[in-house]
Amino acid sequence: MSDPVLFIVNPVSGSGWAQCHLPEFLIEVESLGVKTRVVQSERVAHAIELARAAPGEGFRRVVAVGGDGTVHEVINGLLTQTAVPAHQLTLGVVPVGTGNDFARSIGAPRGWRPALALALLGEGRPCDMGHVRCISAAGQVGRFFANIAGAGFDAAVIAGFGGRVDGRLAYLRGVLRTWGSWRNPLFEVRGGNGPIFDDAGLMALFALGRYFGGGMQLAPSARLDDGLGNVVIVRAMGGARLLLELPRVFSGRVEGSRSVLSGLEQVMDVGSLPACPVEADGELVGHTPARFSVVPRALSAVRGKH
Questions:
Q1: In tens digits, what is the pLDDT along the chain, a chain of 306 residues?
Q2: Does some domain include residue 301?
């Protein structure tokens, strides 16, 4: 590999993984014999700035060292830069966060050493990305996402944490905490060929990857390179039903549930009454109405074996 590689490290991912492991990480990077630069993000959205500047500085491969939030920021930087066409760029991931759902979807190894070797030396393959446009306090906002985005209960759980959830156990605690005050909105969901759902619902998701909420499989048949998003709509249900459905969600059998409506679409429009929160890759973005869409083969990603 002749081109240099940029590593963007989130120092607070994984309860401060970098504080303990960064020295040995740097030694391991150097031992692999590739020209690299390692930088750390210093604040929220800083990784977007670092990734956006990278192609103009000669980097064609950028590796996100962190969790889903770090990947989210890095791809938003890569897809909004103008130095080179984004499909010429390659994304690698060293998953050291607490959720790592996108890393699961691309088959990244769990240990940071094998994940580092794959991210640095592995071959990039074309990968779809998603885009969501919705309403925020400042007006209309657009955001790219790598794995999954949605409106409704999932975003309300994230809002309860102040905008980001760290891991499966935290997510489950958030589910229980949010459930008591949650009221199902009336959703109006449309796809490219017309209406999909018009009723009270729990949430409407648009998934590119298989995993969600720290390893739950709400879209087990999702693919990252088919140019389509998996629409997953969870109907309104009571607390007892929700508890019964959770084992199906973890095991990937959710598509056989009567409580879930699923399909494939290139675009999904979601309106709701009242307006409900919208999230992308576990990051709170705004509220409905929202449009979710696929950006086919937006960039390359280094993938491992599932």
A1: 568 999 999 998 877 888 888 999 999 999 988 899 999 999 999 999 999 999 999 999 999 999 999 999 999 999 999 999 999 999 999 999 877 999 999 999 989 999 999 999 999 999 999 999 999 988 999 999 999 999 999 899 888 776 555 555 666 777 777 877 889 999 999 999 999 999 999 999 999 999 887 777 888 889 999 999 999 999 988 777 777 766 666 566 666 677 889 999 999 999 999 999 999 998 999 999 999 999 999 999 999 976
A2: no
Q: Containing domain of residue 208, as a range?
A: 129-296
Is 67 inside a domain boundary? yes
Flag whether 66 is in a domain. yes
Q: Work out how many domains the chain is built from and give that number.
A: 2
Phi, psi of 182 (to 5 degrees): -80, 135
Residue 44, domain member (yes or no): yes
